[in-house]
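Hello Y.,

Per our agreement to keep a running log of every chain we model this quarter, I'm adding this entry. I've kept the format consistent with earlier entries: sequence first, then predicted structure.
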Amino acid sequence: MDKKILILATRNTASISGEQRYIFQRASTLWKMYNIQTTIISLVHKNKKFKRKPQVPNGIISHVIFTDFFKIFLDIFSLFFKGVIFIKKNSVNFVILSGSPVLLFAPLLKIIFPKVILIWDVHGAIEEIQEGSGFSKKGKLKKLFFIL
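Predicted structure for the entry above:
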C-alpha cells in the first residue's frame, strides 16, 4: 500500500520563499527516499501570486487557493472542505497542518478520520517573534496574533 500525505497550509507555497522551500524540500525527500507522495493544498494571500513561481518536484502535487483580507474566513473553510474531500477520495495516511489557522481543523479531522495521523508543522519559534518585535505597535500586534 502506497503512503500518502496531505498538507493543509496557510503558508506561501505559490512563490519562491523560505516556507515554500521548506515544505517542498521535505516532500521531495519523502518521495525520493520512501516513495511517499505529498499533496499540498495551501491558502495564500493574492499579493503573493506567483511572484517567482516555484518548480514543483516529482512526488508533489500543489494546489493553491488565493485569498484576500475580505474573504479569508470563507477561504479557510474552503481549504478544510477541499482537504476532507481529498482525504476521502485518496485514502490519505497522514495530514500535516501547517499554520495556526489550520490547527483549528484538528479536532474535526480526528472525528471524521480517526485512523489518519495528524501532524502540526511549526515553523520558527516563539523566541523569534519575541526577540524581533521590540516594543513597537506592530510588534505588540504580532504578539497578540501569535497568542490567538
